[in-house]
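Re: beginner question about structure tokens

> Can someone show what the tokenized structure looks like for a real chain? I only ever see the sequence side.

Sure, here's an example I had lying around. Input first:
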Amino acid sequence: MNNENKSTATTNQNDKNNQDFKYSLSLSYVPDLEVLKRKLETDLKIELYFSYSAKIQSYFNRTLKPPSKPVIYQIPCSCEKAYVGQTKVGAENRMKQHFKLISNDEDTKSDMVQYYQATK
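And the corresponding structure tokens:
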């Protein structure tokens, strides 16, 4: 049998094997699933493939958040004063931090929160 006939025979065998399966399924690899694999393939005609959950591409395909920009911000007070602050985490994150500290009535080093707690 020459190489061309061997290649054709292998291709025909692969086509026959692929036609035997109705569905394909890919699962994260877990040890000792070979028994399940054989059962799915023989009884249900489901071809099972294993993959690893931590693939290198999963580290590169994540949606990247834009880095927060340092800002100087001002919060007006009902007493006609204003608090001026500076942050490296971005204004939105810093406002959430202030709100959380005020809501939880926590002791803090934040001058704005201390002033709010003293005047409420």
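Each token stands for a local structural state, so reading them left to right follows the chain. The longest strand covers residues 23-28.
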